[in-house]
Specification:
Beta-Lactamase; five-stranded mixed beta sheet; alpha+beta
Length: about 475
């Protein structure tokens, strides 16, 4: 028999040997579990050799990321993958064409998960050489017919031109009269089109005014909704602190007064409760800070960014000394800002550079460059970096990339940064290379809060 399944693969080898389709079965590591006689004839690889290795060793190109990714998707999603004959002509290179010859076989390969064993995949390779040649022949025939049709149309056009010249010579006056009539008809048509265009413009203007009115109403409703949400977050966060203080106080009393009556498990559970209460207190504190941003007055006074940055560094002095961090500030401008949220913004970004450090001592640099009507600030670090797919998500609420056991925090810090920047009409983003560090950028208007050009209102966050 040309096909023999390894242990655990229930396949009728006699049937598979008789069909003229290449069939093999592989596991997640692409080790070959089944190899039928047709594949042996096409590739020259014996069943014994195939079953002792995997497809990557037989065909190294299958180790490329594009193929590995497609195989992983089959195992993870359960959906088959088809490798088109036009894109992957040599997915599993064959020796010769069917029936002999020097050309390579043209294949279409389908990879699908085994129904009875999801940890294996069935690869079906079909010889579509004949179909490919038929398509090529049809294309050639279609091009030939198209060329013949073009020649026929050209001959018709030439005859039309000849007839037109003859008519022009014999009926000059008739053609001139017809031309005048055509010009009059064209003028009438242009007048009608102009009238239709005027009516269409008037209709578009009416629709635009209506859309602007609806947009203004929706913007007003959104502003009211945002204000209500901020008020709710502030009140809810504030009211939650009292129960937490009671929980912490009760745990402390239990630990102080009943320590000799508690076993190790009881003490451990009390520790869990206190740790959870402390984490909830941090979350509430950050939520209060987040909700206060929308309730603060917009900045109207000029502040020295360098002084704000120095104060932020002083607040982080303990962390800086513990990590052995080196902080460098390039010349920084004066801007219209509220010193408290601007300081919180810089402190959060510098603190992240210290917290998410690599084995090297942290090196953090803060600077700013002029960019039109904005100052573009940058905070660079040499930390662990952030993968590209997380560059947008990390600015959302409660977005953490690491477990709390690895790095402390609530996942709100960068959301606060985003809201502070967007409230004055700026934007915040980052560039990062994993293992080499990150650079956070944010823009701040030079002349006060940036205005939306349509309604001249401050551009606020819709978080």
């Amino acid at each position: 028999m040309g096909v023999r399944a390894q242990e655990g693969t229930d396949v009728d080898g006699t049937i598979l040997d008789q069909i003229r389709v290449g069939i093999c079965i592989v596991d997640r590591s692409l080790s070959v579990l089944l190899w039928n006689r047709t594949l042996t004839e096409w590739t020259g690889i014996t069943e014994q050799r195939a079953l002792q290795t995997n497809l990557v060793e037989l065909y190294p190109q299958l180790g490329e990321s594009r193929y590995r990714r497609r195989f992983e998707e089959v195992f993870e999603t359960g959906c088959p993958a088809v490798f088109s004959s036009t894109l992957h002509k040599h997915f599993l290179p064959a020796k010769t064409l069917r029936g002999g010859g020097d050309g390579l076989m043209i294949q279409q390969t389908t990879v699908c998960p085994e129904r009875r064993d999801p940890s294996t995949a069935l690869i079906v390779i079909e010889d579509v050489t004949a179909q490919h040649h038929q398509i090529q022949a049809l294309r050639i025939e279609r091009n030939r017919l198209r060329e013949a049709n073009d020649r026929a149309e050209q001959e018709v056009e030439e005859r039309k031109h000849g007839a037109a010249r003859l008519l022009e010579a014999n009926h000059t006056l008739e053609l001139q009269a017809r031309k005048l009539a055509d010009q009059r008809a064209t003028a009438m048509k242009m007048m009608q089109e102009a009238d239709l265009a005027r009516r269409a413009a008037e209709g578009a203007e009416r629709r635009l005014r209506k859309s602007q009115l609806q947009l203004a109403e929706r913007a007003e409703a959104l502003a009211v909704s945002n204000a209500e949400l901020e008020q709710f977050a502030y009140v809810a966060s504030h009211d939650l602190q009292e129960p937490l203080r009671k929980i912490t106080s009760c745990c402390q009393i239990l630990q102080d007064d009943y320590a000799d009556k508690l076993d190790d498990d009881g003490k451990q559970w009390i520790g869990f409760v206190r740790s959870s209460a402390q984490r909830m207190r941090s979350l509430i504190k950050d939520l209060l800070a987040f909700s206060r941003i929308g309730r603060q007055e917009l900045p109207t006074e000029e502040v020295d960014t360098a002084l704000v940055c120095r104060r932020a560094i002083e607040n982080l002095q303990a962390s800086i000394e513990e990590a052995g961090a080196e902080i460098t500030c390039r010349p920084l401008p004066q801007v219209l800002a509220d010193e408290t949220p601007l300081g919180q913004l810089l402190q959060n970004l510098i603190g992240n550079g210290i917290k998410y450090r690599s084995d090297r001592a942290p090196e953090i640099e803060i600077g700013a460059e002029s960019e039109g009507d904005f100052w573009r600030f940058d905070v660079r670090d040499n930390g662990i970096g952030i993968r590209q797919e997380w560059h947008e998500r990390i600015f959302g609420m409660f977005q953490r990339l690491h477990r709390k056991e690895e790095y402390s925090g609530t996942g709100i810090g960068l959301a606060i940064c985003k809201k502070i920047v967007e409230r004055v009409g700026g934007r915040i983003w980052l560039e990062s290379t994993p293992g080499r560090g990150s650079t956070f950028f944010f823009t701040w208007p030079k002349h006060g809060v940036a205005q939306d050009e349509h309604n001249a209102e401050p551009v606020l966050s819709a978080d």
